[in-house]
Amino acid sequence: MLALLSVGSYNALLQVRLVTGDFYVLLASAGWAYYSWMLANPTVEHPAIRTDWSAFLLAQVAFGLVWSGLFAGAQWTIGMGHARWGWPLVATLLFVAVGPALLAFRAWGAGVARAGVARAGVARAGVARAGPAVAGFFSNLTPLFTALLSSAFLGEVPRLYHVLAFMLIMGGIVVSSRR
Fold first, then answer.
1. In the predicted structure, residue 121 carries a pLDDT above the cut 70
2. What is the pTM for the complete model shown?
3. Which end of the chain is least crowded, N or C, by CB within 10 Å?
4. Are 47 and 120 in contact, with CB atoms under 8 Å apart?
């Protein structure tokens, strides 16, 4: 992983400077891990996350809209906000709202949910779920998909450190899948 982060040069790691946004990403990652853990380990007292995912998702969307609205409003107030409205921007916003924010989020929740469903007594007959172990494997493949998509859509040429990162990811999946 360090090979990928350093773009193949370990001297680049010595020049890394953390900024406030890095800590936000770490906080978001911890929140995502906790959310995924809650999906896989529901309680009988709190099965709503599994049985009524739309209400839970709506609460998250509302929370995100409030905070995003506050930050965007602050930027517009101090004169830093600007947008060039047109069909490309509207299409992009629509894609982000429907694809990653709704469909992918719902698919992740449904995939992770299997292990804890039966324990919480909220399982639905005939619904097969992958479970957190399988979902975790696909989560680890995100950097690989990112590299493939950047190659396909941005013309980014894969480099040796990409191959090394791919081998490390696949090795980690193989090692972690052994019992």
1. no
2. 0.48
3. C
4. yes
Enumerate residues 6+ apart whose C-beta is below 8 A from 147: 156, 158, 162, 165, 166
- Is the CB of residue 163 less than 8 Å from the CB of residue 6? no
In angstroms, rounded to a whole number, what is the distance separating the alpha carbons of residues 159 and 71? 37
Eight-class DSSP state of 156: P
Q: How far apart are the C-alpha atoms of 10 and 4, rounded to whole Å?
A: 10
Place of tokens 């911890």: 30
pLDDT value for 43: 66
Q: CA 86 to CA 50: how far, in whole Å? A: 38
Tokens coding 1 = 């992983």
Scanning the chain, the segments in alpha helix (DSSP H) are: 2-5, 10-14, 20-40, 48-51, 53-77, 87-98, 105-112, 114-120, 132-140, 142-154, 160-177
Q: What is the dihedral of CA 89, 94, 99, 105, to 10 degrees?
A: 110
Percentage of the chain modeled with pLDDT above 90:
1
> How far is 38 from 46, CA to CA, in rounded Å?
10
Q: Judge whether 13 and 166 are in contact, CB under 8 Å.
A: no
Query: How many Cα atoms occupy the beta-carbon half-sphere of 83 within 13 Å?
Result: 12
Q: What's the CA gap between 36 and 30, in Å, rounded?
A: 10
